[in-house]
Amino acid sequence: MNAIRATLRLQFHRDFTLDDARALVDDFAALGVSHLYASPLQASRRGSRHGYDGVDPTRIDDELGGETALAALVSALRARGMGLVLDIVPNHLAVGGSENPWWQSVLTWGEQSPYGAFFDIDWHAPDPTLAGKLLAPFLGAPYAETLESGELALDFDAVGFHVAYHEHRFPIDPRHYGDILRFAEHNALHEQAAFFEALAQVPDPCSLAPAALSQLERVLEDPSAQASLASALQLFEATSEHGATRLHALLSRQHYRLAFWRTASDEINWRRFFDVTELGGLRVEQPEVFDAVHALPLRLAREGLVDGLRIDHVDGLADPGGYCRHLRARLDALVPERPEGVPSRVALYVEKILGDGETLPTDWQVDGTSGYEFMNEVAGIQHDPQGAAPLAALWHQVSGRAPDFSAEVRQARGEVLETLLASEYAACARALHAVARARLESRDVTLGSIARALKALVVHFPIYRSYAGDAGRPEADAAFFRQAMTGARHALSPPDRATLDRLERWLGGEAPSVCRDDERVLRQRAITRFQQLTSPVAAKAVEDTAGYRSAVLISRNDVGFHGEHFSHSPKRFHAANAVRARDFPHALVTTATHDHKRGEDVRARLAALSESADAFADAVSRWQCDAAPLCQSLDEGTAPSPGDALILYQLILGAWPPTLAPQDSAGMSEFTERLAQWQQKALREAKLRTHWLWPDEQYETACRAFLEGVLTTPALRDSLHRAARALDAPGALNALVQATLRMTVPGVADLYQGNDAWDFSLVDPDNRRPVDYAARRASLFAPPAMSEALAQWRDGRVKQALTVRLLALRARHPTLFLDGDYQPLHAQGQHAERVVAFVRRQGEQCLVVVVPRLATPLLKDELEGDGVLAIAPARWADTRLALPPGRYRSALSERSLDADGEPVALAELFHTLPFEVFTSEARADRRALQGEST
């Protein structure tokens, strides 16, 4: 059975089930992947389109086909020498609604529930209305208004008494059933009331309640008892004053406080996934929680149904490193029990966003990340640094906002702390205040000073989180913490700087282990609170706010990208690949995910725009004039704002498919609708003129009208179309280079569903649209020659042909790709900076990859036609590259090439194709290679 060498990410939901995937296994095998990489399969909310809103981690989702369908899919994969990697979500579960049995138990029994410690709930919040309760902010209007409206309806069914509210079900503690049953004029029901009230006197009421409920159901088999209970329930109808009083009194005795959804940001007393109140954080660091959450994935691993696990949002956990090491140990313990014929070791990947200069800790014992950093690395080398200044000037001139992405992030961090995550921020400040009160010398440090210092520290924190523990802050985090301290110090008054210094020590500068036990616990809690605060703040501020506010070029704003850097040098790219080869050679390497903001080929097209910055600026000036009549004047200003219009122009150019003509009314209508859905989300994420929590429908409507006007006004539409067509060839070349690098650099090549064809998708849910596998099938099983595919490159078959060939090459030489070393090759001559090349070796095997970058000037003729996607050899002038001596064969064109150690002209290397991948079985002279690399 094959090790994991190449994966295909699939998004499962009720319209694409495990059985649907099983029917396509032959297609996936022909594509060349070794494993499917599945979105979460454990039971999620009904109708979920992604699986990250799990409700029951103990079973496979029935909507996907259940475990029977999973076993059938894996059986089909095994028959083709393939396997499955499974995405799991240990950080959170979906709450609210009525589908999560663990959450429903917590609502029912409170802290006494068997799952009372599973969720990260502060049962002792300072708010007296939440003493021993959790906030349930799921109402669509203020509590009193909702109560008096009659929308909260007391009801009874086989599960017990509950208050129904739309899709929600708020259970009544069985110990309070007597408050309802005593209103029934029926002796048997009065007797049942006493049984339920007696539960308050027993040590384990949860285990005895089902028997009492069964007894009540037997009583209710009597029609007279049913009628009496129905009359009693009517007394709790809140449409009357007395009914509202009774229902409120009953709800006040429960283990939750119903509240308007807007209260969550300020008052919630349990950890959420980011600011999503429908997703409750789990305390997976607790052994019993870990065991319950992982029982199914570990069993599937033991039975040989999965060969790898991908851990979602590992930074949300209290102790990511400890979690990963524990899971690695549990997986390794299964090796003797796994069936013969499957990989003995189960791979472990983490979804981790690495900040600028940050590396994945090597002591986590994982195989690597899910690949966001490679998306950033390859995009970085495809952006022309010469375009940074003119595009930044354009953005500032048009939008009025500074082009400094870091400044946008800092502003957004402050806003997120004070709005979306205000309750989490307050909880962290209180945890630090408790640390202050633990010692005489710091007991006068006020909560207000702590809050100000904490805000400054979080605002300037350069990475998602640190990883301090009982032994203090690891050395790898020290530089990032110092950077945050320096920035925070400039933002604070002298007294608050002293508090900041204390925070530095309390948050890991000093090891909690040196403190006495009571203070040690307080410091550990404060460290955890802080580290679980900075991560969601970063996600909301960087990806979901600044990334939509700052648009020097939006292809540099995506998940895991470093928007403060417009471009990266090939030297940095090579260094990152070398580090991966050394530390995480089996990490996933991807260029598209279910979370990306723009499809991989949209980013590739916009990267090409960086090479024509001045021409773009001129075009924007014309478009502004032509579109002025489409703008609307509102009280808050022009709609759309000039900045929002500029972002829209970028998206239109980046996402306009090369085969879509303005005269195609149906195609243009679909394109417009997709852009309109993106636009609404982008405007709300930016949080400038509208917001998810308080949408400005007037502004959004005006922006949509502008979009529709732009794409239906002939002169303006046609001008945009011409500008989009100018990006077709360089964008396509960038996309093919991007795909080539993804499949040849160190790591496991990961392909996102459908991306063997052009990917012009936008942010989710657009990037999760159904894949037309039938349309891909003919060329998949009879791939055209690369030269033929390049001649018809606009239809996307060239990308599939490239994918099939390179994945087949990986299958023939698995150890070369998974374990081969990595050495950069450096070109010489006029266009040396437009070449990226490297060599990989494993034993006698050798791989040489040579691709162009920033090639728009070399594609001048192609920009004006529809011919073969190629760079005329003469355009490379005197550019040359020294290859390790040996005889090579192209994996793409089958031509042979002899290298004797002397530089080879790029015109010769790219004689057939505009990029090349060569393999050699001959032993090359390592000294010659090393000399050329230096």
TrEMBL record:
CDD domains attached to this UniProt entry: AmyAc_MTSase (cd11336)
Occurrences of domain Glycosyl hydrolase family 13 catalytic (ranges): 12-582
InterPro entries the record matches: GH (IPR017853), GH13_cat_dom (IPR006047), Trehalose_TreY (IPR012767)
Pfam families linked to this entry: Alpha-amylase
TM region(s), chain numbering: none
Name the record gives this protein: Malto-oligosyltrehalose synthase
Species of origin: Vreelandella malpeensis
